[in-house]
Amino acid sequence: MIKEITCISCPNGCEMSVEVVENKIIRVENNKCERGISFANEEIFNPQRMLCSTVKTSDPKNLRLPVRTDKVIPKNKIFEAMKCINNIVINKNIQMGEKIIENLLGLGVSIIASQSLKINSNNV
Ligand code: SF4
After folding, report:
1. Does one domain contain both 41 and 56?
2. Which one of 82, 103, 111, 121 is most buried, counting C-beta atoms within 10 A?
3. Is 17 in contact with 4 (CB distance < 8 Å)?
4. Count of CB atoms situated within 10 Å of the CB of 46
5. Same domain, 26 and 77
6. Which tens digits make up the pLDDT trace of 6-53?
């Protein structure tokens, strides 16, 4: 099986062809450096992503607060992670980088605020 993947390890964004036979990578083409091979292994056997999203707030002037994971998470956990994120409502002031969810899905990863939020108490 040949998979076409884009290496995101650097801005070059090499579009690589990866041949996989019996759960083993036997050939990688179009990678400009060795890091492409490591990326291909990760992407094919254990794909991971940073997750960026927003959570609800109780402040009518700032209805959503941007958040992100502080590390990558397995791609197949993103749907479950979004369910957790969608259940959160922030009703207090938050500093950028503050943890919103700790140990998301037991992965040892936190959801952190991508910006600060000051709840306007006149609006709550
Ligand atoms: S293969 Fe090397 S040069 Fe190409 S995107 Fe990946 S890290 Fe960059």
Report:
1. no
2. 111
3. yes
4. 10
5. no
6. 999 999 999 999 999 999 999 999 999 999 999 999 999 999 999 999
